[in-house]
Amino acid sequence: MDALTHGVIGITLAGLSGQPVAIDNPIYIAAFLGSQAPDFDFLTIIRGGMSYLKQHRAASHSLPGLVVWAALIAGGIFFFYPDSSLLQLFFWAFAGGLSHIASDFFNTHGAAVLWPLRKERLSCNLLNVFDPLLLLLLLSPYVSGLPIQQVAFISFANVLVYTGLRLLFRMHTTHQLKQQVSSDELERILVMPSLERIFYWDFVIETTEGYQLGQTGFFHSSIRLKAKLPKQPESTIMLEAQKTNLAEFFLWFTPFRYFSTEHQEGNLNVHIYDLRYFQNHSFLHRGTIIFDNDNLPAESYLHSYGRKLKFPS
């Protein structure tokens, strides 16, 4: 999720303690810093964009990572507030961090919550990285004037009901989409929040023949098909491309990858697409592997959010 939503969740979490909200209250400081800590992995960008892409939402967003973050935060706060309970500070910092990786797990980008047992990102695909309605439901109880503990309970009840309703709507949408494809042909289906509109779902359907990308609404069953992609036969070039660092990155980054080949300017290129994000007739995340005259990978590039990043081959 975005930093603002994480911060609001952290402060609301500390409100469950019943202590008054104060900028110098060590419990609120611990919970707030804990709610932000997993994203401190942005510091790895100092070592370059490649390092950041590989480390973001990885070990820092795991349970072992949370223990480290909570210990560092608790120790730092205890240095300035020696009269506070070190164990209590650790608990609230850990709770704040847990709220962070839980909310990241529920959004479409996911997190490596089972690291080091599983290094790929896992996602529940219920929320976008920024969900304005979720933020509104978290903040609205604060205007009630109720004691902070009651405000916190109402805020989290709102979140629970909201995510529960989204889950039910998604289950209904998934059931409807499955009816559009023969059960003998269907292999996988992904339904996730649309990046374009709040009350819409984007979907990827994998069949034995290929992939269907489209969009459908929360409250109606009309389906808009955006693209159909046939499955590509495996070739020597495809197999070589799958051994590259760029292909390994896509294997970690997305469960729905698509490979295609293209001859361009005398070179053979292999393109990799993240099928989850398709907007304005193009993919938000895609990769290009350029092969030399010996049909070996020579250069690799990641195209994401309008940026072009060179990968080691």
From TrEMBL:
Entry's Pfam families? YdjM (PF04307)
> Which branch of life, at top level?
Bacteria
**InterPro entries, per this entry?**
Transcription_regulator, YdjM-like
Q: Which UniProt keywords apply?
A: Membrane, Transmembrane, Transmembrane helix
Q: What parts of the sequence cross the membrane?
A: 63-81, 87-106, 126-144, 150-169
The identity of this protein, by name, is Inner membrane protein
Q: State the organism named in the record.
A: Anaerospora hongkongensis
